């Protein structure tokens, strides 16, 4: 599975962005999918995840109420990010997981100015 994240950019605090993660090579309908981020000088951290069915979602406390993860259950996962804060500035990575195997895409950069 190859994953390609897109949708990052520069936005002012309080603004919104929508990230997309497109899978190729095979469908990801049986994969749980998620988003992680890594800020400069920090370790990669969990942001949000969604089950293979789309029926369950999970969020880091720092983004609850502001970010929403969704998927189309075939090839694409999304992360709607609202009320962005400078602390959300990071390289965002999408992840697909199934059968004990993790797949990662290249990140998309989100920069939030104050």
Structural class: mainly beta
| SS strand fraction | over 45%
Whole-number average pLDDT?
A: 94
List the helices and strands in order.
EEEEEEEEEEE
Overall body shape: globular
How many helical elements?
0
Number-wise, the strands total 11
Helix content: under 10%
Distance N to C terminus:
37 Å
Q: Uncertain runs with pLDDT below 50, 5 residues or more?
A: none
Largest sheet: 7 strands, mixed
Rg estimate, integer Å:
13 Å
Could you characterize the architecture of this molecule?
With 114 residues, the chain is an all-beta fold. The chain has no helices and eleven strands. Strands 2, 4, 5, 6, 9, 10 and 11 form a seven-stranded mixed beta sheet that branches. It has a four-stranded antiparallel beta sheet with strand order 1-3-8-7, with no helix packed on it. The protein is globular. The model has no long low-confidence stretch (mean pLDDT 94).
Short description:
With 114 residues, the protein is mostly beta strands. The chain has strands at 2-6, 9-12, 17-24, 32-38, 45-50, 57-59, 67-71, 76-81, 90-98, 101-104, 108-113. 0% of the residues lie in helices and 55% in strands.
Layout of secondary structure:
Blueprint: E1 2-6, E2 9-12, E3 17-24, E4 32-38, E5 45-50, E6 57-59, E7 67-71, E8 76-81, E9 90-98, E10 101-104, E11 108-113
Parallel strand pairs: 2-11
Antiparallel strand pairs: 1-3, 3-8, 4-5, 4-9, 5-6, 7-8, 9-10, 9-11
């Amino acid at each position: 599975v190859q994953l390609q994240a897109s949708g990052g950019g520069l936005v002012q605090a309080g603004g919104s962005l929508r990230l997309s993660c497109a899978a190729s090579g095979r469908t990801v309908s049986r994969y749980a999918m998620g988003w992680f981020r890594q800020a400069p000088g920090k370790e990669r951290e969990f942001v949000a995840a969604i089950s293979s069915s789309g029926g369950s979602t999970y969020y880091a406390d720092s983004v609850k109420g502001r970010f929403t993860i969704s998927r189309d259950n075939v090839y694409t996962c999304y992360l709607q990010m609202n009320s962005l804060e400078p602390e959300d500035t990071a390289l965002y990575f999408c992840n697909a997981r199934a059968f004990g195997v993790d797949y990662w895409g290249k990140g998309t950069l989100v920069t939030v100015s104050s």
